[in-house]
## 1
Amino acid sequence: MAKVRTSFICQSCGAVAPRWQGKCEACNAWNSLVEEAPSAGIGALAARNARKGRIFALEGLNGSSPPAPRLLSGMAELDRVTGGGFVPGSVLLIGGEPGIGKSTLLIQVCAAMARRGERVVYISGEEAAAQVRLRAERLGLSDAHVELAAETSVEDVVTTLSHGRTPSLVVIDSIQTMWTETADSTPGTVTQVRGAAQALIRFAKLSGACVILVGHVTKDGQIAGPRVVEHMVDAVASFEGDGSHHFRILRNAKNRFGPTDEIGVFEMTGGGLVEVANPSALFLAGRDGCAPGAAVFAGMEGTRPVLVEIQALVAPSALGTPRRAVVGWDPSRLSMLVAVLEAHGRVKLGQHDIYLNVAGGMKISEPAADLAAAAALVSSLTGAVLPHDMVFFGEVGLSGAVRPVPHANLRLKEAKKLGFARAVAPQGIKDQNSGDKAGLSPARLDDMPLRSIRHIGEAIADIAALGRSVAAPSKTRAAVS
Ligand code: TYD
Ligand code: MG
């Protein structure tokens, strides 16, 4: 009998190796190689059926194409993330940790769309139909006409979906449980996930149905299976949240039809996911305004201003190398900020452990958070409590200069709405934001007393003065000289 040749495929990058090895040479992932039988892969199949190509027409860039039609989901927070609704014929991949609420979100979306008369199909590869039905019943969605099936064969799914009225929305929960007959490997392996995704994407493009794929994530937060699936689909979103909080954030990582920096905020309740129209109020809830080390950052998530509290704890270290730990922020940005504070603000942090936390489990990637983080650090070091009604924003450069950031008026408007009365902001935002493109109805910057600063040293001096005027003068003087 002829020996069946197998190959070993890295489950994180899809590289092929002839024999097993502990580490993938392509992506350096450990223990990611899985033996897979050779299959008539997509390339091989195409080669066998190869025919002579036909000539197709090429078009110019200046042709007129109508804007992509949109299908509203009925959940404003989700529509915000998709950039104004699902695009027919597109494929959206939603990743997230187990138990975060992906299935709950999608059954709610399905029900909302079915109630508006769209044909909606929910294919569950993980749960039995009865389980999905039970969840829908608990959520009070039983009356919605969602067509349900527990199936894992992609060929059967595509054949069934191609039958009858084209569905507007198809949910596949999850792509890792689907398997295609064109590949011999077990479900969940790279070849299978890739093959199944390809078949479903082809179905979406041909039929015009919008397909949502649920993807599992690995320990480090990547969508399991080959990265190539992320490249194949039109949009990728991740559903995030942490166990200790009830809110969930749907964050866009890729979107061929809209912006990628929008977030949708939901709250997990006993009755399913509820949209949160005003995230700032949620993130600032339970704020303890009289402890040092907390600064409120007026941030932006896409076109929406979001206020979050940045908390810092700076304490003398007993270790040779002090600890630096960050939650919700970039650790290298913290190192940079600490270096700037030491070099240009004469703040001595070298012998201190530093912990920085973005309250509420939010993740911040905006450089505009630098000033708020710096204020929280200095406040914790000096013991000076920052005023309860003050917000901060501004980017800190390596020279210690505080640089203007976009959308100052939107940030200030949101702060004002939430009861904040003053802001520390970079100098120059007035000129820069006079023509703010995203300014929906530009607030006058003078509406709120602004402390305009040009250099980080000014902010440090302000905080040190605050500390001196209240308490612990000796500590303040010792820390900031
Ligand atoms: P689920 O949607 O099954 O998560 P995923 O598909 O991402 O794995 O969500 C399950 C979690 O959500 C579970 O821990 C219970 C919680 N939950 C609620 O708190 N309220 C609800 O109404 C529902 C349906 C679930
Ligand atoms: Mg699920």
## 2
Amino acid sequence: MPVTATGTYDDGNIFARILRGEIPSKRVYEDDFAVAFHDINPQAPIHVLVIPRGAYVSWADFSAKASDAEIAGFVRAVGTVARDLGLEEPGYRLLANAGVHAHQEVPHLHVHIFGGRQMGAMLPRA
Ligand code: AMP
């Protein structure tokens, strides 16, 4: 079910549990600010999620409340992961869903990295 991106942070969400090591994930990267792991239901040959370690629901929540160091660290991590996955050439797509209209399912900020095939049109028809 899509979640609202403006609610308070739910410490029991699945990515909070992955961060705490309570449930497994196939991690490809981690540092002080971010963790990256394979999506459990990949939509492309390469589908990796990058999440900040901090408790933020959405991009708006993160940009309003995170420290400059957290923001810089997270943004750098996304770039590093995409590069380390070998996606600079031939390219890749970043996606961050926020709220019900975007079908955000997990209420912890995450950036999808899609790669490994032609991505097609930017958005499906509504
Ligand atoms: P979104 O719709 O942007 O909130 O995307 C949530 C993503 O999290 C989906 O692509 C799911 O397949 C993925 N996901 C859900 N549970 C897990 C999990 N335990 N490990 C890895 N990815 C997950």
